Structures are given as structure tokens and as C-alpha cells.
Batch of 2 targets.
Target 1
Amino acid sequence: MFMFEKAIRGSRQYWIWLFCLLCVILAGLAFYLYQLNLGLGVTGMSRNVSWGMYIAQFTFFVGVAASAVMVVLPYYLHDYKAFGRVTVLGEFLAITAVVMCCLFIFVDLGQPARVFNIILYPTPWSLMFWDMISLSGYLLLNAMITVVTLTAEREEVAPPRWIRPVIVLSIPWAVSIHTVTAFLYSGLPGRSSWLTAIMAPRFLAGAFCSGPALLILFCLILRRTTGFDVGQKAINALSVIVTYAMVINVFFILVEAFTVLYSRIPADVAHLQYLYLGLDGNYHLVPWMWLSVLLAAVALALLLVPSWRRNPVILPIACLAVFFSLWLDKGLGLIVGGFVPSPLDTVTTYTPTLPEWSIVLGIYAIGAVMITVFYKIALAVHGEIGEADVHVPAVPAGPADR
Amino acid sequence: MKITRKDFLRLSGLSFLAGGAMEAARAIAGRSSAATESQSTPVAQSVRWGMVVDLRRCQKEKGCTACTDACDAAHNVPRLADPQHQVNWIWTQPYETVFPFIQNGYAEQSDAGIPVPLLCNHCASPPCVHVCPTQATWKRADGIVMMDWHRCIGCRYCMAACPYGSRSFNWVDPRPAIAHINPDFPTRSKGVVEKCNFCEERLANGLKPSCVDACPQKALVFGNLADPNSEPRQLLRQRFAVQREPELGTGPSVYYLV
Amino acid sequence: MRDRLWIAAGLVLFVAAITAPFWYRPTPARDLAKLPELALPAKQKQCVAPVSYMRASHMVLLTDWRQQVVRESERKYVAFNGSVYQKSLTATCLGCHNKEQFCDRCHTYAGVSGPYCWNCHNASASRAVAASADTTEPRPEGAHLAENLPAHILAELASRTNQSLPGSRP
């Protein structure tokens, strides 16, 4: 298989880390089997809040996947050399995020055994059909790009010329995956808080700050744990991207809030009221939504000052703030808030249950394993951790290594 | 010719992918063209099943649940302990939540609080049908929005799309919560969405929906909306009727006489 | 050289695993060789299609019926011999066959646990007329199937030919 021989040699910490992740995955799997047996009733979802954590996390990670375009575009279209090392990390993050998205959709299905009905009975007027097409296409494109470019890099030759159009295609494709995901929600007549033309742009802005923020965090972790450095110039450039995208994201949220609050149409106000003030004595999400606001404010304050955003201590804090602010806003409030109040004016509390959290964590752990293995491969190809692993005898080059 | 293992694996992987893609493309081309054909077939709308709910009559029988009971018994609708998991085909909600647009300021609210029977509106342009990724729900030529419980994958997109809250998901296995199973109608399994089917199984036998037959006040009037002389059409000519959220353009087939 | 032991052990395990179905049997071989005893309908001798077809392709017929009834509102089945049936698992199939003594026995024998029909369709409550394993009762010679259908199905079939729609007026 594709350079996986690089991933099966590692230090003790590497294997302990993978083992811990495996335990989390197994716990998630056990709870998934429990859910499969008893039905989705084991989650906190209900007839009024019929989508919850799974779909919200799906939405959030489509954004993370799409954000790879923020490194691919400067590197390949503008020949921005500083992103030379970080680009493949971004592409691997995209692959991981898309796989996580598919898993989040899968665990949300009531009849997972029938999932292929989507392909068996293709329905082009359903946005979910197009979401499937765009996500699987994006996965395929990125898998192809990473395999071809990494192989070329290892063999120290230039990548084949035919890969360039594929890379260029992946750029609008990245935009499409999050646009189609936004359309899933924004085209529904009965859910006024989703029925907004700014949904797709807002999703993209949120994606382009949360994804690169995560990428920065990964780069900083790699620098600490493996000594692999993508270069300060790349990190600075990424932090500028995060800053601009976060400003635009907050701007879009405020624009939406203005339209709703100034027009004062009761049905539209009710959703915002539920999220930020509480409705009919239900304050469930209020602290979380204000935490999201607070984190966004902190992130903006830290990012907007250039010297702070270049500070190696402040930058990770700012990135964490961006990530969790968006995680709460998009990965929780947006979906749940769209369902409350229901079309029949019912306010329903949604609390994710233990099985639900465990399954979500299990999918996170699968993502973490993928990222770990992928980055191990990428770093091995870059030849940066060769020294760290000297105690492991080098695998003699067999036919598979050729 | 010399071929390495890697080349062999790469080649066979690509062939599998190409084969699969070809199969998928063929399936998509074949199916979707068939589907669009059936969708675009001009149907002379000679039958459009619909219902008129006379709230004045319905109100006369306080605390009556005859329609719900008859429907639940006929269709094996479970009665679950957890209200959040409840499955509803025809049920009631307070007037003001059903018709929020009728509440206005100082107008006399004599109807506030009265229970209004709700069911699937069998819309002319149903949002649930537009979003369903497997055509497990579709619109029949006679206006009934049908469900195929064999095909539903349980994604619940239709529930998000329905502006009337008319769709229910089987969060748990419904069978233990059905007191007496009607052997002539299937139950559902956990993990599929269900809703009112306008008793299409009774219509096929020339019968009216069970809720209509069960109503002691004859408050539910069922018939062909496309026929100007049908009972519901005559009622709609005589009385002031409303639909639920007509501004969404869904074109409900259920009217309420207020 | 150390590897040789591991390879041998792995091979043994592999061979053991893939041959497991041959030497690990929950039921003794002599039971497996015995065909299941199927209770055939007492009153009917002809199914909706020839036995050979039903034996091989009943699942195709059932999914076809399912598709036609649910999605195309086509409820009438004209059999190869001109008999007319209602396309219904519970009314027509179970009208003659008994689930436990017919469907299940063969499915258990063949190891086909698959179809989820019974998650929703009600076999236990079906008005199975057939049922008894004893098929010695003489079958009425030349009995036309439709005559033995339950009354409500006959009524339904009759109404199909002269379809009147409720509420509509000419």
C-alpha cells in the first residue's frame, strides 16, 4: 500500500498514542453497536430536534475539509513557496475530515444497511445526492493529489504534469463541498433560521478560519514533538488567513443577526432568542452560545494585533479560541437552533447522551489515527524524522518499496 | 514485459475503480432518466385527494380522540411513553400554534386553545419529496404523498424539510408499544420515517380514510379536490377555509373551516 | 530462521480458520443432509407460480410485488394459469402457507436468516388457514384458487374491475 511501511515504524510514544486512540475507537464502536441494536432513541434527538450532534459535527468537518483550499490555492496557483511543506499536511487534513464527515452521516442513519439506496436510486433533485457526489469526489481528488505529489517528492522528481489540472479542479471543488452542505439547510421552506442566502458564504468563512487554525495547531504540535518545521513564514501566512476569515465570519454572523433583529419578524427572532437568551424557560444552549461569542472576541483581539499573532505562545491560544468558537457556533448552535422552536412552536431540549458523545469521540479518534499515520508518512518522506528513529533498523528496500 | 507488484496493484485498483464508476454512471443515467420521465409525465389531474376539517363540528365533541384512535389502530401507530419519540399520523395541537397568523391583537380569540386535528397535508409541492435522497417518499398522481418503508434510509432530511411537523421517525422499535397489532397493515421497523398515508390502502378498496369514518361529528370530509362537485369542494365554496402556511407555496390538500 | 515458527503457526491458524465450517458444525452432519420437512398448504396444490419458479425465485416475485403495490398501486396479480391474486405477503402467501412450518424451516435449513419481512409484516397474526403439517386431506380437484381467497380479497378484486372512488361524482 501507499507508503504505509513508513507508518509501521515509530517510537514508543507513537504506539502508545495509537493504542489510546484505538481504545477510544473501540468504545465508540461498542456504543454504535448499542445504538444499532436499540435505534437512534439512545441519542438525545427527538421528534422536534431530529438532527443533533452527528449532523452538526458533519457540517463542521465539511468546513475543515474545504479549508485545505487555503493552502492549496496559494501554493499551486500563486506559486507561494512558503507553503511547500504545509500543503500536503492541509491535503491530508482534508482527506481525514471528509472521511469523518462520511462517518458522521453514517452513524446518523436509521437504516445504515440501506445507505447504498442513495446510489441505487439516484435523485438529482435532492441536495443530499449532490453532497454525496461532491464529498466523494473531493476525497478522490485529494487522495490522488497526495499520492502523486508525495511519490514524486520521495523519488525526487517533479510531479507528473497531468496532476496539475487535477489540483486546479480541487480548488473550486473544495468550495463546492461546503456550498452544497449549506444548501442542504438553506433550501428548506419551514426552517426560518436556515432560510438565508448568506448560509453558504458564512459556512465558507467559518471553514477558512477554523480549518487553518487547526492546521496551525497541528504544525506547532509537529514542531514540538518531531522537530519538523513547516517554517515560520508559512505559519505567519496561515495566521493572516485565519485572521481575515474570522473577521469575515463574525461580520457575516452580525449581518444575519441585524436582518433578524431589526426586521423583528417573530418566527425569525425566536431562533436567535432561543440560542442567546433562552425561550420559554429553556436556557440550555445560552451559556454555550455566549462562550462562542466570547471566544470569537478573544480570538479577534489576539489575531488582529500583528505582533501577538506572530507570538508562539499567543498564536495557539488564538487558534484554539477560533476553533472552539466555530465548533460551538456551527457544530452545535446552528443545527440545533434551527429546530427550536419547531414549526408548531414547541421548545424542545436537546442534550447529547453518553452513547452519542462516545460515538462522536470514536469518530474523532478515527480522525486522529488517520492524521497521525498520514503525517507520519508525510514527515518520513520529507526525511525529517529519520534521526529521531535511528534505533529502529531501516527496513531493507524490498520490491514494495520500489 | 516486466510488471512490478506495485504496478500490478495500481493497475488492478484503477480497473476496479473504472469498472465501478462505469457501473455507477450507467445506473445513474438509466435510473434518473427513468425517474425524470415518471416525474415529468403530464398527469391529467383528475383525482387529487384532499380533506376538509370542519373545526366548528370538531369542537362540539370535547376531548374526543376518535380519529386518532381509529387511525392508530388501523395503521399500528405505536403509543410510546416518551413524548419525544412519539409517532403521529393524525393528532391535535392547540389552535394558536397551528394557525399563528390568525392571532391578531385585540381580535376575539374564542378559538384559542381548542384542539385542531393535524395530519400530513399531502402538499401539491411537497418539500419532503424534493429532499428525499432515495425517492422513499414521493407524490402519486392522485396527490397522495407516499412513503416506501422498504427504501427509507432514515436520514430524516424529510423531517427537517416538512414545515408542518407531520413526519415522525421511529427512534425505537415500535412493536412493543402497539397494544393490538392490526394484521392487515404492517408495523414499521426502527429507523424509518412515517406519516399519514391518507389511508391509501383503504382507498384502493373503495373505502374512505378511517379517521373520516370514525369521526362522530362528521367533521372530517374527504374527497376529490379536482372534482368541482365533490363534497369537500362544495364545503370550500360555502365556508371560509384556511390552509396551514399557504405562503410557503406547498399547496396543502388539507383545509380547515374556521 | 526464527520467523519460520511464526510463519508455520500463522499458516496453521489460517488453514484452521478457513476450514472451520467443515469441521465445526452446530448441527450433526446427518441432520444437515436431511431436507427440511415443509408443511404444504392443505387446501391448495397450485401456488401463484410453478413450484420450480417459486423455489428458485420467490424472493424476486416478492420484491416485484412489493414494488408494484407500494410504488405503482398495482395490486392485482394474474398468474401463469390465469388465476387472479392479491399481491400480498400476509393475505395471499400466508393465506395458504404457514410461516414457521414453511418459510422458516427452509430458511433455517438453507442458512438464510436474511429477509427482514417480519420486522414489519405480521406473520403471527395472519389468518393462516393452511398451517397443519398434515397434508393427507384430499385436495379439491381442479379447485380454482380465487375461490379459496378470503372474502375481503375477493371483494377487493371485484372492486378493481369496477373501480368507484369515494367522494367523487360523475
Target 2
Amino acid sequence: MSSSQKLAEIIADHKGREGALLPILHDVQEEFGCVDENSEKAIAEGLNLSRAEVHGVVSFYHDFLKQADPRPVVQICRAESCKARGVEALMDDANQAAGERVKLSTVYCLGLCSSGPNARIGDKLHARLDSAALTKLIENA
Amino acid sequence: MTTIRISDDALARACGADELAAAFEKAGASVERTSSWGMQWLEPLVEVDGKGFGPATVDDVAAILDGSSDKGIGVIAEHPFIASQQRLTFARAGKTRPLSLDDYEATGGWSGLKRARAMGPEAIVEEVLSSGLRGRGGAGFPAGIKWKTVAGAQADQKYIVCNADEGDSGTFADRMVMEGDPFALIEGMAIAGEAVGATKGYVYLRSEYPDAIDKMEKAVRASAHIVAPFVCEIRAGAGAYVCGEETSLLNSLEGKRGEVRAKPPLPALKGLFGKPTVVNNVLTLAAVPHILMEGGASLYDSLGIDRSKGTMPIQLAGNIKHGGLYEVAFGITLGELVNEIGGGTQSGRPVKAVQVGGPLGAYIHPDQFDIPFDYEAYTKADALIGHAGITVFDDTADMGAMARFAMEFCAAESCGKCTPCRLGAVRGMEVIDRIRVGGRELAGVETEPQMHNMPKTGRSPDEEVQLLEDLCETMKFGSLCALGGFTPYPVMSALKHWPEDFRK
């Protein structure tokens, strides 16, 4: 199936729902790794919105990316509870382990706040990280 | 065959519960995956015939099975951390399999909904009013009054919206309800629907909780025939903290930018798609089934102090030895929570500060540890309960850096609709940076002789502090919602109690 067919299918799947835009954007992000200009255009047409409206929504939310990033992503929580448990002291080692190969992104809270520092890779969560454990996660990502 | 019970809560899984469960199965035991007891420092906690072992690893499997493990904590239900709680919302925690309808019914599930359907809308609202239940999301608005407003509104369609966008650091009670007792939340929503005449409910669930999304979707499908004609649907958020604010959440649900709406109109009258809408937090709705049981409302009203009724699921987090979920009646002091129940810091160092109520809550100094857990008492102390998350910091914390982070966080997450929040947060970071480097000198064009209206000198750190105080005042009273309005709490409290951390 071509990517434009897949896109049309995603739009058709959700079109009748109330507030269909966010579910569509989630599926597009999941499928293509980003919501690019072409997708925005097709979604705008499908939902009878202006492209500006769709772009405004896409750019508002942290989860939707303009361009796909082929690198593996490791999300590290750097909110208050993880700071209180020393996440900042791990960041130098983490950045070094990641180098150019792995993308480290900051997330504000994975909800495991008594057991930080915490990280997320895909849908898998990791808690009680120290420098060695985090470095290993990043190297294996 | 021995039956082993291990939680399938996200925290237990992040600490290796899945691998542990697989190892027990491989060793010939039968494994049941239950909700979490909430003793998170012991996760993964293994339960064998009511006795607990934790934190367990795959290396402990043989010893636990043959009874020689030294990780035993005795009977779980008698553990002081559990025995001293009053669990209503979390009554099932640790005891049931989250997605088992049989377990749910066997522990009183759906009886609140059945009773609610028999008594009718007006009586339901009366019960919720008389229970004294207040919104658990942070504002503490009486739930019954909100429901009454929606019930009284005329419209062809009304909605129940569950706010499950639990973005505050230090909070995880919503997550634990959705992962551990999802049917209780669905039942609460169905009862709310019955009370106000709404047939459609949405759960707006943050995308940072993949486990909760999965469990809630399964639970909604499994219970659809029971709550019908009420229909419940899960919608995932997209990483915007501000969408935990109710009007921003409604915009997001509608498929718009998560910008805050000015109030009035209240969401109770013009909410989702312009229709009358109940927006309640997960904990509020999950408390409802219990309240609607026979005698539930009066029991709820009998607990707590003053106008803070019932119990609050308090979350102990950050640098704390015994972190987890502690549900107790209002009135407990912060000192008891942090030092006695929480056991002090994980690092063993002295407690320096405690942030109550998430990123927008005040930093509280150990000198104030005698304040009782009560909405009004916290307001009086220039602090807030919020969603009842408690984040502990030891004496290595740099409170000037935490104050700056509060502004940085506000700048990153501001929806951009109102100026005090959008610009104030950025200016706040700059001012704090200047205080920390000792003020500022005149520079560039300011030093030119033509600029005769300029001050003749730079700003001293004291003048910068004055500026920060003015800015916080403006944000507090000029912002549309709590993000800009409450960011001054952590900043000003840090400045008040630890001024030395701002002068490096």
C-alpha cells in the first residue's frame, strides 16, 4: 500500500468521530514517524479544515514531529521528582553514551515518581536508573 | 501448586515484574497479576499466601518458593504502611486482578451504579453533595455543585469528561486507579452520567501512560454491556502539560490546540462541543462508586476535617525512603507523612524541602511540617494541596535552580494564550539568572549619553528580587489559568525560605 493510500485510510477510519483530528494525528505519527506537510494537507482536506488550522494543532503538541527521526529515542524524565533523585547528575554520561546515534528527549513525568530516575523507550518503562543502567539502556536502544 | 501474586502496575513492570513473573512460571508456580499495593519501594512485591517478599529479582525465585528468602516483610495487609491507611478509593489495591470483572463484582463492584439507577438523578446529586466530595484535581471544587449545574442545564447532549492528564511530577494516583481498578473509574463515570443525564463519556488520558491507555481500553470494552446505554471512550493526549487544565483539555478533545478558554462560560454550561459537561479528575470519579453504596456518603462525610471531607490518596515521591500511595483521611500533618510514614529521605540526608501539589505547588520548609493536610490550611500557608503529590528533596537540592526550573517549565508548557504566562515565564527565568549572577550592569545603548531617561546605574540583586516579586504578582493575578497563576508558588516559596540559594 502506498503512503498516500495509508494516509487516506487513516483519515477515513476516524472521519465520523467527534474531535477526529487528534486520533488521526496519533495514527499518522505512529505510521510515518512524523506529521509532515503532505499529511497536513490531506488531513485538512479530509476534515474540511484549513491547512493553517491543522498545522496549528500539529505544532502545538510535543508528540507530533515535523520530520521523522530515524534514530532510536530514549525519553528521560527530568521533572521535579526525578531531579530530587539525581537525574541531572546522570545526564553527562547519558549524552556521551547517546552520541549522534541515539536521540535523547526530555519528558515531564512518567508517573513513577517514587522510583526515579526513569526512562521510556517505545512503550517500555525503566525505573531506578543509575548511571550504569541508563548508559546500558542507551547503548542497547 | 503455589499461587504467586505479582502486580502488573507500570512501576512494578519498570522494576522487572514481568521477568519475575515469567521466572516463577518457569519454576512451576501459577502466577496471578494483580494491582499494586502501593508500597513502591518494595516493587516488584511478590505475594505468597498473603505474605510479601520484596523488592524481588529473578535471583530470589527459588528462595521465595522454598521459604528461605530473607526478603520477607510478613503479612502484607498488616504492614504498618498499609494497616495505618483508610483506603476507600484504593480499597481494591493489591487485592484484585485489574481486568477481571469477576474480581470487581466480588468486591462490591457495580453496586453503586445499581443503587444510583434505582434512586434517580436528583437523589444521586444529593448523595454526592452530602458526602462533601470535592474535586481531587487540585481546585477542590465541590463535585455535587458541579453535577447539579450540569443536571439543571437543558441540552440535547451532555458529556462526562474524565481528566486523566496527570502531568504533575510527584503524582501517580490517577495512573494507579486506571491500571489497578479501571472499572471503578468507569462505574464512577456511568453514575455521573446517570446523575446529569449524559450518555457519553470521554477519558482524556496522557500519552506518557501507555500501560494505563491499554488497560482502560480493555476495561471499556469489557464493561460496555454493563454501563450501557452510557458509552465511554478513551482519548490519548499528545504531550501537552497544559491540557490538564479543564478548558484546554476540552479544546484538545475537540481536536484543537490545547489553549485555555476564558471562563465564564463554565464548562458545566458550555463545555465539550459547547454542551453542558462534567469535567472531573480520575480520583473524584473513582471515589463516587463508594459514596453511592449504602451508607457510603455519610461515611465519607464523617472522615476528614473542617470542609475537607473524606480521604485523600496521597502520593509520596521524590527522594523518599518509603515512597508510594498512602490514602488517609484529611488532617494528617506533613511531618508525619514525610518522616514517619515515608521514613525520611532515600539518600539518608536531612530533608531540605518538600513540594506539595506538583510543579505548581509551593516548596515547604521542614519548619512548617505541622500543617494539617486540608485545603484551607494549605491556602492559608500560601501553598496548595493540588493533586496531593509530595516530592521530597534532601539538603543537596539547589532551590534557586528549582525556582528557575519552575519558570522554565512554565515557559515550555505555556499554551500562549495569555501574556503574563507566555512572557512572564521567560522573563522570570532571565531575572532569576540575573539574581544568581549578582544583578546587572548597564550595557550597550543604555550607557549612551542620549539615554537620559535611563537609570544611571545597573540593578543590584535586591532590585532584581523586587522585580521578580512584582512579576510573580502579575502572573498570579493576571494569568488565565493555574499554569501561569500558580508558577509563582514554587518560585516565591523557594525565594522566601532559601534566599541563600539564589546568591551564589
